[in-house]
TrEMBL record:
Signal peptide: none annotated. Belongs to the IWS1 family. GO terms for cellular component: nucleus. This is TFIIS helical bundle-like domain protein. It comes from the Eukaryota. Keywords: Nucleus. Residues 53-62 have a biased composition (Basic and acidic residues). Residues 159-235 form the TFIIS N-terminal domain. Residues 1-17 have a biased composition (Acidic residues). SUPFAM superfamilies: Conserved domain common to transcription factors TFIIS, elongin A, CRSP70 (SSF47676). Its main location: nucleus.
């Protein structure tokens, strides 16, 4: 077999073109090295640009070609950024808000406990227990924020309401004004079945609904009893959903 026949066996005209020529113009070693130094292996060279460069009519591939490479590379970066998970800024803000609410509820509960203790001391010293009535509007205002109210209920704050609504041992009945404001606030509370399980507040309210000498207090207490009885006995799943609340004002 002649050398020309051997060459025909490996030369497939329908396949890829030889890589050692462009427009019948070959690269010499120096030009190849220069191209490698330019680090433009991913650039999209067109025939005219390469021909100018090979023939020595152009110092280096034009900026237009280099921009192609940068554009291609930049596109990949954009795609990578799009695939990268977004920063959870909203989630961070939500968690921060939750922590602030928890801290606020903690302070409110501590304040309610201290006020209750001062009234107990007043009774022990044979003095009027006036601390709760002085602070009831302030406490209700703080607890009226929906996010705060939710956390207060979930964090056993109802027990503190029972202390405020109930009679202090060896002391007189709390003032009608105090009980009226507390019962109105309690009626508006968003509660679930789990919030009402085993709480002392229910017993205190039921006692008022059946034994209070003040008709207005009996009516208010009965409204709470009816509402809570419906929640406890209802099969509606919404009363099991502790996520029915939203954080916020």
């Amino acid at each position: 077999m002649s050398d020309e026949e051997k060459l025909d066996i490996f030369d497939d005209n329908e396949g890829e073109q030889p890589v050692d020529a462009v427009n019948d113009q070959a690269f010499d070693d120096q030009q190849v090295d220069e191209l490698l130094d330019l680090n433009l292996d991913d650039a999209e060279f067109d025939d005219l640009e390469l021909e100018k460069y090979v023939e020595g009519n152009d110092d280096k591939p034009s900026k237009r070609i280099q921009k192609k490479r940068k554009s291609s590379s930049g596109g990949n970066n954009v795609e990578a950024k799009q695939q990268k998970p977004r920063s959870s800024k909203k989630e961070e803000e939500r968690l921060k808000n939750e922590l602030e609410i928890k801290e606020e509820v903690k302070k409110i509960k501590s304040e309610m406990k201290q006020i209750h203790q001062r009234d107990i001391k007043a009774v022990e010293n044979k003095k009027p227990a006036l601390n709760k009535i002085k602070h009831i509007d302030e406490i209700i205002s703080k607890l009226s924020k929906l996010g705060v109210q939710r956390e207060f209920v979930q964090d056993k704050g109802i027990d503190y309401l029972a202390d405020w609504l109930d009679k202090i041992p060896n002391g007189p009945e709390p003032s009608v004004t105090l009980r009226k404001k507390l019962l109105q606030f309690i009626f508006e509370l968003n509660v679930t079945r789990s919030n009402l399980t085993g709480i002392r507040l229910g017993k205190v309210i039921y006692k008022i609904s059946s034994k209070s000498e003040v008709k207005e207090l009996r009516i208010l207490a009965n409204k709470v009893v009816e509402k809570w009885s419906k929640i406890i006995n209802s099969r509606d799943k919404k009363y099991d959903d502790e996520d029915q609340y939203e954080y916020g004002d």
